Amino acid sequence: MQHSTQVELLKRTLALVEKGRSDCAPAPSALPVEVYLDEERYRRERDEILRREPVLVARSSEIPAGHFLTRELLAPLLLTRDEQGRLRGFLNVCKHRGTQLVGDASGKNRVFVCPYHAWAYNPDGQLRGIPHGYGFEGIDRNCLNLTEVPVAERFGAVWARLSPGPALDLDAFFGPEIIADFEGFAIDDHVIFDPQDIRRPVNWKLTIDTFLENYHVQKAHQATIDHLFWPNLGLFERFGRHIRNYYVKRNLGEIADQPESAWNLRRHGNLLYYLWPNTLVLVEPDHIDFSTVFPDGPLATRVLGHTLLAEEPVTDKARRYFEKNNAILYSALEEDFALAARVQTGIQAGASDLLWHGSFEPALKWFHQNLDEALGDRRVIA
Fold it and tell me: Domain named Rieske: which ranges (predicted)?
């Protein structure tokens, strides 16, 4: 993020502190509880949004030249990179009888042989061989190649569409504001630390909801992070379907004695980005946490998380420092998951038809409006 942007955001934050009020939407909004319960709505979110929009599937560093990587997300995915560095993505499914082709999580490229009938594929997805091929004479071999899905790389990460479609235009997808911020973070060569794979019995949107407001921090996180943050104070902005929040820390007053040239946004608060449709990025002073949220069914969530560090910790002291930071982070997330589960139980009880978003929780409204817009629906009451 450019320093001029940091100064602008900190000035806006100081103005909020002076007023004693957070950034606000013009009015509260409401959301029908059925969006968290309706199985048809879940299927449409999965098929029409999460399988069609670019989603984060890996770090580029996880797929060196001449290697492959598989992922089980909303579809089985096979990523390969050739010796020249070209990255390709495929549905990890043999075209004969639909068997998952590659069972290994990662490795060096090879001829991929189906474990069922030994159909063989090259790393570029081309069908290489069929045992007793005379039984398939007359079939166009091109239709038997692996199904390719579009992939592209940005910010040191691999983004994929989990279904066939046109090439990804990530410049247009992210837009200039998000690109400027993330290029400023210079994370292309950062290293992965402490990857996580978390599953919880709640609707996937409840998981994202917990990240998008800081109204709950004072009560819900008394034991973990409340002491760090100014109560219910933040900046909220949207860029297309992406969102940038800034949650203000109690040490903000330190900048009163500093020249603007020394102001550092990351020191005095955490940036929280929601990248449409399902990735959350928490920018802390010396590391960045990614969480990508997938539904695991109508009432189940899977969160794939990892921390990015500028370099691999080389001393025990450095490793313990980042381990302690992540222990605090994931303790706070467990508090959020526990509350999300209580919300899930509560809304299933039928006590109310609506959930309410305060005017100082605008990112919640924007997130759900994004989903409405993508589905041609209108559930948010604003």
Answer: 54-160
Return the structure tokens found at 140: 């166009």
Could you tell me where the DSSP H helices lie in 3-47?
Answer: 3-19, 39-44
| Longest Cα separation, the chain | 81
Q: What are phi and psi of 310, to 5 degrees?
A: -65, -30
CATH superfamily, domain 3-52+174-375, is: Naphthalene 1,2-dioxygenase Alpha Subunit; Chain A, domain 1 (3.90.380.10)
**Residue 290: what residue type?**
F
User: pLDDT (tens digit, 9 = 90+) per residue, 328-346?
Assistant: 999 999 999 999 999 999 9
Domain boundaries, the chain: 3-52+174-375, 55-160
pLDDT in tens, 139-169: 999 999 999 999 999 999 999 999 999 999 9
User: How many angstroms separate the CA atoms of 291 and 211, rounded?
Assistant: 10
Structure pTM?
Answer: 0.95
In sign, the C-alpha dihedral spanning 275, 278, 283, 289 is negative
